[in-house]
From TrEMBL:
Keywords: Membrane, Mitochondrion, Mitochondrion inner membrane, Repeat, Stress response, Transmembrane, Transmembrane helix, Transport. GO terms for molecular function: amino acid transmembrane transporter activity. PROSITE patterns: SOLCAR (PS50920). It comes from Acorus calamus. The gene is PUMP1. Belongs to the mitochondrial carrier (TC 2.A.29) family. This is Mitochondrial uncoupling protein 1. PANTHER family: MITOCHONDRIAL DICARBOXYLATE CARRIER-RELATED. It holds the Pfam family Mito_carr.
Length: 303
């Protein structure tokens, strides 16, 4: 995540891809319980559909985590971790690994000076859309596994694991079903990727111009927190639509999901799970960027 003429140019694409995938996977392992809580909160509208006075099962990030752990066991908080790691290897490696090369492409190899914010945003949008187009099946399986709560006695699970989920979805719904929700997913991931990478890049660049600051862990921490906050504020509505479409096949399209959510649950529904989403993305970005900066240094020393 260096400048146009920064240290990132000293790393091959393979090194960038590998360091990005490693950092993204490590962040995924650390924060997936918060992601599971976020998905359950976003899909909770089903609990209040039949009975308006019914008590909501999940309340708040920590309450949701505690409820899942109590009813389903601690392991349930890591539901979807295998497809989650599949996703981060592909999506994380591509979106982050391609960011600097795409940014350089947009400004030109001979460009000197700070890259304009608009080009950083454009690079983030591009790599986010490209990466999730490849990784959408892993995202779908991850959400399907996370969405499945505690089942009544005698009711079998829809999927026995991530590989079974892939094969079952293809057999029952067709190969194209693996790209269910691709529209809102491209929108979500392109927007969030641009918010994360461009804001991290811009915040880091700005902080490094302040006397007394250097390219160290504290600077990476500040930039990572800022990236997570911007990503959640901008991406939460499309994130809710994506989770609902992937967790419930009754929606006809992205627009249908958006309209039904707005009509049935109100505009605040698009910010359901905002706190766990920020807890997830904020901590995810801090862990990922801190790890990325360190792993990049390892790859740079190898070249």
């Amino acid at each position: 995540m260096g400048g146009h003429d920064g240290s990132s140019s000293d790393i091959s694409f393979a090194g960038r891809f590998a360091s990005s995938a490693i950092a993204a996977c490590f962040a995924e392992i650390c924060t997936i319980p918060l992601d599971t809580a976020k998905v359950r909160l976003q899909l909770q509208k089903k609990a209040a559909t039949g009975d308006k006075v019914a008590q909501l099962k999940y309340r708040g990030m920590l309450g949701t985590v505690a409820t899942i752990a109590r009813e389903e066991g601690l392991a349930a908080l890591w539901k979807g971790i295998i497809p989650g790691l599949h996703r981060q290897c592909l999506y994380g490696g591509l979106r982050i690994g391609l960011y600097d090369p795409i940014k350089s492409f947009y400004v030109g190899n001979d460009y000197v000076g700070d890259v304009p914010l608009s080009k950083k945003i454009l690079a983030g949008l591009t790599t986010g859309a490209l990466a999730i187009s490849v990784a959408n099946p892993t995202d779908l399986v991850k959400v399907r596994l996370q969405a499945e709560g505690k089942l009544p006695p005698g009711v079998p699970k829809r999927y026995t694991g991530s590989l079974n989920a892939y094969s079952t979805i293809v057999k029952q719904e067709g190969l194209a079903a693996l790209w269910t929700g691709i529209g809102p997913n491209i929108a979500r991931n392109a927007i969030i990727n641009a918010a994360e990478l461009a804001s991290y890049d811009q915040i880091k660049q700005t902080v490094l111009k302040i006397p007394g600051f250097s390219d160290n862990v504290f600077t990476h921490l500040l930039a990572g927190l800022g990236a997570g906050f911007f990503a959640v504020c901008i991406g939460s509505p499309v994130d809710v639509v994506k989770s609902r479409m992937m967790g419930d096949s009754t929606y006809k399209s992205t627009l249908d999901c958006f309209i039904k959510t707005l009509r049935n649950d109100g505009p605040l529904a698009f910010y359901k799970g905002f706190i766990p989403n920020f807890g997830r993305l904020g901590s995810w970005n801090v862990i990922m960027f801190l790890t990325l900066e360190q792993v990049k240094q390892v790859f740079m020393r190898q070249t």
